[in-house]
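Hey,

The postdoc asked me to send both predictions to you directly instead of through the lab channel. I've kept everything plain text so nothing gets mangled by the mail client. Protein one:
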Amino acid sequence: MQSTSEITWSASPTEPRLTIVRQDGDVIELAFMVTEDLFQLQGHFPGEPVLPGVAQVDWAVKFARRYLGMTGDIARLGQLKFSQLIVGGSHIGLNLDWQREAGRLHFSYHKGEEVCSSGFFELTSP
């Protein structure tokens, strides 16, 4: 494995190209491919790129703010589970369920019917 100092970082996309599969109010399903040129895969891991969990959490928040109008500061992250690696080249679905009144966002990443990761955020003010 390369050390951080041996990795050459390059400018590359920080988000996948998204497709909205369906949206019903505050629930949305997005689809994308984890292309191996994504910045988050650089150095994680050379020769076997894996999408880091922190990137999955970041994208869930970012896309909920963008597509569902979620606002407020994150107060709590709960029931975070990473059950399946998301590797470069994977076709992934992301389900976001914004429970506006409760100030809670549930998210799950999946490959077909298989859940890769899931969890929820609670916000300080919905």
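Protein two:
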Amino acid sequence: MVQERMRGQVVPHDDFGPVRRIAAVDAHFSESDNKTWAAVAEIDPVTLELTRSVLLWRPTVFPYVPGFLSFREVPAMVAALSLLPEPPDLLVVDGQGLAHPRRFGLACHLGVVTGLPAIGVAKSRLVGRYDEPGRERGSSSPMFHRRELVGVALRTRDGTNPLFVSVGHRVSLPTAVDLVLRFSPKWRLPEPIRLADAISRMHG
């Protein structure tokens, strides 16, 4: 299976240099005209302010198959990333990384295809069990699937539902958790993902 072959290329430890440009990517599907819209939000790692944005569409060529959503999204996302003047130093992806039935979610797929360090940040759990983390911001709980650590349930805002952080590519799980918390000073979602989602909906 393609996912299982590509999974062997995932680097689950820290393998990146200084982070000067952070980008998030998001995609939405327009079934009426068979388009995949992809948005990129690039932010400054210190101020967390938007520095660049991209919005484009590509024809949707892969059918919807549960567990294989990344094959629909990645072509448009890669095209959007290619329009940035320079590649980002880190991708924050709205989706699963290793916390996936075949250990190859969207964050892994996008990281391997582009070669960029990537973190998976999902709003809902796909696989795994975890104990509910504390109610305070920064509380976390490991998530296991088939006795394997696949991610962390992380509370990014007091009293809100946790996010599910997992390795995408070239970023370790502890580092991924630290970065997601740093990028989420006010809202539940990390700032780059929040901005990319807003941009992706501008196609009307």
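Summary for protein two, as requested: The helical segments are 2-7, 70-81, 106-114, 173-182, 191-200.

Thanks,
C.
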